[in-house]
Recover the amino acids of this structure.
C-alpha cells in the first residue's frame, strides 16, 4: 500500500528533512471537528506544506441515488451538510421540480423560504460560534446554542425530526405549518436579535479575536474564483455572488435583502459576512411569515405529487396516481438539468441526468465543502498551526458534505 | 508615591470588575432556566405530536387495523426496515383473500424518514412521539406492529388516524 508522504510531495532535500517535522492533523483530531486528515510539514510552528486526504466517511451517495426513486433521494441529502439539512432537502425537491417542469404555488415557495432561512441561521450560528471556540472563546458558543435548540424545536414541530429532517416532499410539504410552529418561529425571530447582539459584543470588536483572525487564512478573489468558491467564503473575498440573487429560486426575488461582501477574504471577513447574513435571514423569515399567502401547502399535479390521503382511500384516480408515484412509475422527461440553491456554506447544486426511468441515470451533488477543502493547503501554507485550525472552521467545511 | 497610587487604583479596578462580573452572575441566577431536568420532568415534558420516534400500527377497540398487506411500505423503505408477511385465506363466500400475517419493523435499522407513513395508501401506520426507545438487547429492536389475533377493519368505517395528522 502506498503511504502518503508529504516530504516526498514537497521534494525536500536531505537537509530540509532534518529540519522539518511531519504532523498528522486528524483524521480524528478534536480540533478539526469532522473526519479530515491533514498531513502537515512543519518548520517549528510554521506550516511549510500540507496535504489533505478525503474520503473517510464516503458513503457513495451519488451511486446509491442511481438505484432509488426520486423522492427517496431526499433521505440521502439530509446527510450531506447536516447542520442545515432542510436546505439540502428543499434543494433536491427544487431540482426534481425543475426536471419535471412544474411550478409550485407562492405559499409553498414562502414556506420553503422560511424553512431554508431558519436552517441558514442555525448553520451560521454554529459556524461563527465555533470560530470563537477555536480561537479560545467558548462562551459565545454556549450563548447561541440555546437559539439553535429553538430552531431544532421548530424543525420538530414542522416535520418531526431534528437533525436528519427529510422535510417536505417533491411539490411542497406533506403537512401545513401548525399554529404552534408559527408561534415558535415568531418567538425565535423576536428573541434572536438580543442574543445576536450579545454574541457580536463578545467577538466582533474583540481585540483578541480580531488579532487572531484578521489576515489569517486569506484568499484573494481571483484564486477563490479559480477554485470555484461560492457562498460566504467567496463573498468574503469581495465577489458578490449569491444564487438567491443571481438565479432566484423559490420566489426569492419577491424579497429585498442585502448580500454582504467582504474585502480580504480572511477569517475575520468570513465571520463578518456570516454575521451580516444572519441579520438578513432574520428579516427574510419575518417578511416571508408576514406575507405568507393563503392556499395549499402542496402543489396539485396528481401525476407528480402525492394526492391527499383521504382521496387515495376513497377515489380511483388518486389511488392510481398515488401508486404510480410511490412505485416510481411517473413520467420523467429524458433531460439533463442543473439546479442550485444557496446552501448555508455555498452553492449546493444538483446535476441530474434522467433517462425517463424510475431512478436518475446519473446524479452529481455539487458540494461546496468539497471545493473549499481543495484550497485549504494553499490557504494555510506559511501560517501557524493554530491559524490552520481557525481557517478550517471559518471555511465551514463539513465532513458529511465533503465526502458525500 | 506613584507606585502606591498604582497599587490602590489597581486594587479598586480589580474590585470593580469583580463586582461587575458578579452582578451578571447574580442576574443570571434569577432568570428563568432553559435547561430541562430530563428524567425528572417526564410528566411535564412536551414533545411535538409530529415527532418521529416509533412506528406504530393503530388498532381500534375490536383489535382491528387498517393494513391491507399491500407491501408498499416495505418497497419504499430506504433501509429495508419493514417486512410485511401476508397469508392467503378463504373467506366465508369462498373467495381467496390476502391478509396481513405479521408486520415486522426493525427499529435498529430505521432512519425515521417517514416514507413508509407517506406512502401507505390506507393510513395504517403512524409515527408516534414516544422517543424512549433504548433497549438492552438487539433482538428487542425487532418489533411486531400488528397485535396478536388482529384483523383488517372494514373500509367503510371512520379512519383510525384522524384527518390532518
Amino acid at each position: 500500500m502506498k503511504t502518503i508522504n508529504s516530504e516526498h510531495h514537497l521534494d525536500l532535500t536531505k537537509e530540509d528533512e532534518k529540519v522539518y517535522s511531519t504532523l498528522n492533523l486528524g483524521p480524528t483530531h478534536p480540533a478539526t471537528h469532522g473526519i479530515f486528515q491533514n498531513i502537515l510539514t512543519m518548520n517549528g510552528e510554521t506550516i511549510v506544506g500540507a496535504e489533505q486526504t478525503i474520503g473517510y466517511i464516503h458513503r457513495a451517495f451519488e451511486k446509491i441515488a442511481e438505484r432509488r426513486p426520486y423522492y427517496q433521494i431526499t433521505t440521502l441529502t439530509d446527510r450531506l451538510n447536516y447542520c442545515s439539512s432542510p436546505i439540502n432537502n428543499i434543494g433536491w425537491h427544487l431540482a426534481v421540480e425543475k426536471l419535471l417542469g412544474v411550478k409550485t404555488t407562492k405559499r409553498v415557495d414562502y414556506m420553503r423560504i422560511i424553512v431554508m432561512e431558519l436552517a441558514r441561521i442555525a448553520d451560521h450560528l454554529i459556524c461563527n460560534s465555533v470560530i470563537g471556540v477555536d480561537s479560545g472563546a467558548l462562551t459565545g458558543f454556549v450563548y447561541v446554542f440555546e437559539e439553535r435548540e429553538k430552531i431544532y424545536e421548530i424543525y420538530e414541530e414542522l416535520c418531526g425530526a431534528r437533525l436528519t429532517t427529510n422535510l417536505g416532499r417533491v411539490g411542497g410539504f406533506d403537512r401545513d405549518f401548525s399554529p404552534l410552529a408559527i408561534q415558535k418561529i415568531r418567538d425565535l425571530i423576536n428573541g434572536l436579535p438580543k442574543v445576536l447582539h450579545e454574541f457580536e459584543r463578545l467577538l466582533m470588536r474583540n481585540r483578541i479575536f480580531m488579532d487572531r483572525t484578521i489576515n489569517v487564512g486569506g484568499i484573494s478573489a481571483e484564486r477563490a474564483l479559480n477554485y470555484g468558491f461560492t457562498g460566504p467564503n467567496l463573498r468574503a473575498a469581495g465577489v458578490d455572488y449569491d444564487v438567491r440573487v443571481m438565479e432566484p429560486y423559490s420566489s426569492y426575488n419577491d424579497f429585498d435583502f442585502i448580500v454582504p461582501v467582504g474585502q480580504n477574504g480572511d477569517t475575520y471577513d468570513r465571520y463578518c459576512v456570516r454575521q451580516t447574513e444572519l441579520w438578513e435571514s432574520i428579516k427574510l423569515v419575518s417578511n416571508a411569515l408576514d406575507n405568507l399567502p393563503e392556499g395549499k401547502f402542496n402543489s396539485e399535479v396528481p401525476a407528480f405529487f402525492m394526492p391527499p390521503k383521504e382521496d387515495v382511500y376513497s377515489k380511483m384516480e388518486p389511488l392510481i396516481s398515488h401508486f404510480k408515484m410511490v412505485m416510481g412509475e411517473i413520467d420523467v422527461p429524458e433531460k439533463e438539468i442543473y439546479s442550485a440553491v444557496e446552501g448555508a456554506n455555498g452553492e449546493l447544486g444538483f446535476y441530474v441526468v434522467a433517462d425517463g426511468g424510475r431512478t436518475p441515470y446519473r446524479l452529481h451533488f455539487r458540494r461546496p465543502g468539497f471545493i473549499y477543502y481543495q484550497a485549504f493547503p494553499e490557504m494555510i501554507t506559511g501560517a501557524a498551526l493554530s491559524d490552520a485550525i481557525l481557517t478550517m472552521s471559518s471555511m465551514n467545511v463539513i465532513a458529511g458534505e465533503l465526502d458525500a | 508615591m506613584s507606585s502606591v497610587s498604582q497599587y490602590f487604583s489597581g486594587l479598586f479596578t480589580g474590585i470593580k470588575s469583580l463586582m461587575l462580573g458578579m452582578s451578571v452572575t447574580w442576574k443570571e441566577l434569577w432568570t428563568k432556566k432553559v435547561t430541562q431536568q430530563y428524567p425528572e420532568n417526564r410528566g411535564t415534558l412536551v414533545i411535538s405530536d409530529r415527532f418521529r420516534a416509533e412506528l406504530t400500527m393503530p388498532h381500534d377497540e375490536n383489535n382491528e387495523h387498517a393494513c391491507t398487506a399491500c407491501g408498499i411500505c416495505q418497497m419504499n423503505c430506504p433501509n429495508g426496515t419493514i417486512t410485511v408477511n401476508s397469508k392467503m385465506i378463504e373467506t366465508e363466500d369462498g373467495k381467496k383473500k390476502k391478509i396481513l400475517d405479521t408486520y415486522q419493523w426493525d427499529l435498529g435499522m430505521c432512519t425515521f424518514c417517514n416514507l413508509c407513513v407517506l406512502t401507505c395508501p390506507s393510513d395504517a401506520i403512524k409515527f408516534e412521539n414516544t422517543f424512549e426507545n433504548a433497549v438492552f438487547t438487539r433482538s428487542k429492536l425487532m418489533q411486531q406492529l400488528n397485535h396478536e389475533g388482529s384483523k383488517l377493519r372494514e373500509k367503510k368505517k371512520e379512519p383510525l388516524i384522524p384527518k390532518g395528522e
